[in-house]
Amino acid sequence: MTIQQQLRPYQVLAGRAILESVLRRQGMTFTVEIARQGGKNELSAQLEVLLLTLFMSKGGNLIKASPTFKPQTVTSIMRLKERLNDVGYKGLWRGEHGYIVRLGKARQLFFSADGSSNVVGATAHILLEIDESQDVDKGKYAKEFRPMGSSTNVTTVLYGTAWDDSTLLEEAKQHNLELEAKDGVRRHFQFDWQEVAKYNPNYLQFVEGERARLGESHPLFQTQYCLKPLSGGGGFLSLSQQAQLQGHHSRLRQPPQQGPRPLYVAGIDIAGEAERAEDGILRSLNPKKDSTVLTIGRLDFSVCSEFQKEPQVDIVEHYWWTGKPHAALHPQLVDLLKNVWGCKRVVVDATGVGEAVASFLRAALGSTVVQPFVFTAPSKARLGFALLAAINGGRVKMYAPDGSEEYQEFWREMELAQSHFRRNQTMNFSVTEGEGHDDFLMSLALLVEAAQYTPRSARGRVRELAL
Questions:
Q1: DSSP assigned state of 230
Q2: Does 191 lie in the same domain as 43?
Q3: Rounded alpha-carbon distances, angstroms, from residue 302 to 160, 299, 309, 345
Q4: Which one in 58, 172, 307, 390 has a CA-CA gap of 20 to 30 Å to 31?
Q5: Which residues on neighbouring strands pair with residue 205, listed in sequence order?
């Protein structure tokens, strides 16, 4: 068996360098970035099989760490066992304690790099691997994993994809590039989606579809496929994205009375009642007050095709209440959503005090219409990424200028919004405290979530085709 088995040329290139360092006991540290689904896990598994084979008589430990035990570490264990079986070791390898795979005297140990895990004490004799190292805490690595190979001068590999410029992987990559510039020895291996696509036409088609869906500038496309790190933060929407968001359709005060009735959806950001005033006053008069914002969107399914699965959503109306108690808003919200616009799907902020409003609306309008949305770090990141994808794809448009305070506040928030990138491919987006609020921004993001709606007739056609 050689390192070339089942591997593509770019995987072989990195694998050979790692293998040489191991066999010559050079103790080098490598950084390997391969576009998402491009085969870094397969490279890792093949290296493990080869090294277990080479050291099965002599013995020693290989250690691999992943950000989480489930599913990442478990997946790595399963992949190694499958590859051992593939090369004829079925019945010869042994599993031990749920996190060790033994072949002869050589052992592959798998650990979680989660902050709560306790891994001090193990020694890496052959190879130390850190999977998805962009998501591993730098302090955890320096204190608990890096010392595992200190007494053995072990070769270390940090695998992953790009994220922001402060990750463990990015810092190790930059250090490697500095060393390469001095001695010419390659330590960093980077293969973006275009390199992977040379060897896999299906992958090319998939990533081109992702580029069309997300947009070239989307953070996930830039980091996961182009392998370009992000800065720690900055403006949430670029000037070009703001231009894409601007539409030309007119604002509506109510649905048209003639002709077919369009489908409408809504996003509602709920004000925190801790900030409410005794009476409803516009934010322009009291800019510190949080507001409840209801955004109405009209769905256009005529743009849907084989390449664009989602409808366009045109923002057609805003409602804006500052300082009005939630209980006083209940009947007005129900009337607007049900009787005026007949919204088919409503996504409402159900975080904290918003939970009561969401429960009331679900009781009044039905659980199939009203979907509560609880803001957490992961869910907000998903919401922000979906909003960026919709803007990049031209699938959400703001009504034309009308001189209203709602229009002005909407664009003020779009211009002020900032993004902050976090570990585990998450992102926060907001207007910085002290500069204003982001109620229109969050209501817009919830509207895009609400636009994930399939008309009953479309579902019927799908069932009909299935038959």
A1: B
A2: yes
A3: 40, 9, 11, 19
A4: 58
A5: none
Would you say residue 212 lies in a domain?
no
Query: What H or E segment, with its residue span, contains residue 458?
Result: helix 456-466
Residue 274 has pLDDT above 50, yes or no: no
Q: How many domains does the chain have?
A: 2
Tokens of residue 164, six digits: 């922001």
Is the full-model pTM beyond 0.85? Answer: no
The full length of the chain comes to 467
Burial 451-461 (b: 16+ CB within 10 A, else e): bebeeeeeeee
From residue 13, alpha-carbon distances to 38, 293, 412, 435 in Å are 14, 54, 50, 50
User: Mind listing the pLDDT tens digit for each residue in 372-404?
Assistant: 999 999 999 999 999 999 999 999 999 999 999
Residue that wins the pLDDT comparison between 171 and 260: 171
The residues that bridge with 292 in the sheet, in sequence order, are 321
The answer to whether residue 465 scores a pLDDT higher than 50 is no
Q: Verify that 323 and 193 share a domain, yes or no.
A: no
Burial status of residue 96 (CB atoms within 10 A of its CB: 0-12, 13-18, 19 or more): exposed
What is the strand order of the sheet 233-235 is part of?
Answer: 233-235, 417-422, 426-431
- Helix locations, 366-455, DSSP H: 377-392, 405-416, 439-450
Is 171 a member of any domain? Answer: yes
Phi, psi values for residue 280, rounded to 5°: -80, 110
Give Cβ neighbours of residue 87 (< 8 Å, ≥ 6 apart).
1, 5, 49, 53
Structural contact between residues 269 and 442, judged by C-beta atoms closer than 8 angstroms: yes
Report in angstroms the alpha-carbon separations of 246 from 238, 258, 391, 418.
13, 26, 10, 19
Question: Quick check: 137 and 65 in contact, CB under 8 A?
Answer: no
Tell me phi and psi for residue 259, to 5 degrees.
80, -175
User: Do 264 and 412 have their domain in common?
Assistant: yes
- Residue 433: which domain range? 232-453
* Phi, psi of 134, deg, nearest 5: -65, -15
Q: Which of 160, 186, 202 represents a domain boundary (last residue)?
A: 202
Within a domain: 2: no
Q: Which CATH number characterizes residue 427's domain?
A: 3.30.420.240
What is Dmax (Cα atoms) for the chain? 83
CATH of the domain at 134: 3.40.50.300
